[in-house]
Amino acid sequence: MFENEKVNHVKFGEGSVMECDGSHIRIVFSYNNVEKTFAYPGAFDKFVSFQSEEAQQMAESELEQIKLNQKKLEGMKKLIIQENERRKEEALKAKAKRKRQ
Fold it and tell me: How confident is the model over 71-97, as a mean pLDDT?
């Protein structure tokens, strides 16, 4: 996926994708043949961009999906925390009620 696609990096300049396994992307940059590995698609949020519009749109789409999933996960975590706190409160009330009896 994306092999031989041309990219631009804010610091390393132009490069070519050597490999992308869906979670990491390995790029060789033209300047001094520097090879770097980045998180994919996270690096495309700020540091790396494809020269191909189609490839860039794919990376942005995957990045957006990850962000949406993270928001959903955060919402679920909040609900779980709220539910746990509610259960603790109910348990404390029940314990206090038993002591009074």
Answer: 94
